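HAT C-terminal dimerisation domain-containing protein, Parnassius mnemosyne. Tokens?
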Amino acid sequence: MIAVDMEPLRKGEHEGFRDFVNALDSRYEIPDTTILKKKLLPEYYENVKQKLVIALSKAEHVSVTTDLWTSIANEGILSVTCHFFHNEKLIAPLLEVVKMEGSHNAENIASMLDATLSKWDIRSKCEAITTDNAQTMINAAAKLHIRHIPCFAHTLNLTVSDSFAVTCLDQILKKCKSIVTFFKMSTLASDKLRAIQRELNKPELKVIQEVPTRWNSAYHMLQRIVTMKTELTLALNECNRAPPGVNADEYLIIQETIQILEPFDLATTKISGESYITLSLIIPLIRGIKTKLVEVESQIVTESGNKILLCMKGSVDKRLSPYESRTPVVLATILDPRFKKKGFKTSDDEKRAGQWLEKAYASHLTKERLAVEETQPTPSTSSGTSNDLLGFLDVPDVSTPLSNSLVDVRQYLEKPVIDRKECPITYWKYTNNKLKELAMLYLCIPASSVPSERIFSKAGQILTERRNRLKEKRLNELLFIKQNSCYFND
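Tokens:
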């Protein structure tokens, strides 16, 4: 309960909790804090850990995400989550959170990641590392010789941020932020706003502040400003020292901006999941964003709106389009039976994806064949000359990995795609084709580093001002149980 609900380890000492437990059953003795810390917590951690070790030993391919965070105690903390298929489900358990001492450079990050992967005995089966776009993270993956996947959610946020450089939008954002700050800082203004909302029979919504580190927060701020347009206008007019309100022309630009930003918000939400396959979503989502921006273009009437849209299109080409040429992303897309070639925009892209799949599959079959040949004895050759002139016909045909790959890939691609609501994992489970081995390799790779960032959100609820001296070991145990007990709880 303490780990899952992120309660303090001294929960059993709280008077209200003790009274509550006593009312339920006066015979029950609450374990004291020392027993909790030194016995029960480590025992439960080891129990869940052993189950994870067994699950990892059975996994053929895994991928990881990692991120760095500075705690309230001003300590650098590195998180590592692992992603693999277990019991026909994609799971994202936490491997560990560890305090990072010294410089946060690529060499130190690589060293700590290598130690973590080796500790869990998954170094040889780790297919990819997904992180943010920081150069140190990219270099760390390169030092480990593990393919790096830049977080797509982070890239979407950078793409949206580029549009804020447009002068007219920058000025409107500053005005909206000052309005939000005014209502956040003034109790009188907030009271006035709530009174007007009740008078107009409107829901008592609050304004939302834009925070640079919180993805899409500017979009949500603008959306809320438009939703509360009438109440905000009236409240600002009745408050002393209120900042200037948003005029009609600016509201029109805001509404057009919301239309432009909406597909990015939807894409961020979709790509941030950890219980379903995400890497194969990147290329279809990019195509969907580009399609939506073309549709929105006909609805933009202001000059400022057109400038914002033009800037956004340029940023999409600059930041998102490179994903369409990344081998893991392309292969994940074509190996997802919901998309196959339909996920790609042009026939050239479809053709290239098919060729890359054939090449990757042939390479996979070759490695598999060589591994088998190494374990089998070399057949002996008989001496002497055969008198059978037709003996050559008895020699079995030897198929090449390339020929096998062409057949399997063609058969897979010729079948119709499955419904988007169906599960790709279930599809591959019932497919008697070695291509599924390649599919399991690429489809377990996460498209974003959000799982690691969620760990830090949970850590922030555990490491508070009142609990800033919690030891690294205790923090790791609590977060490990919080994240993983749902996967391995009997």
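The chain has 19 helices and six strands.
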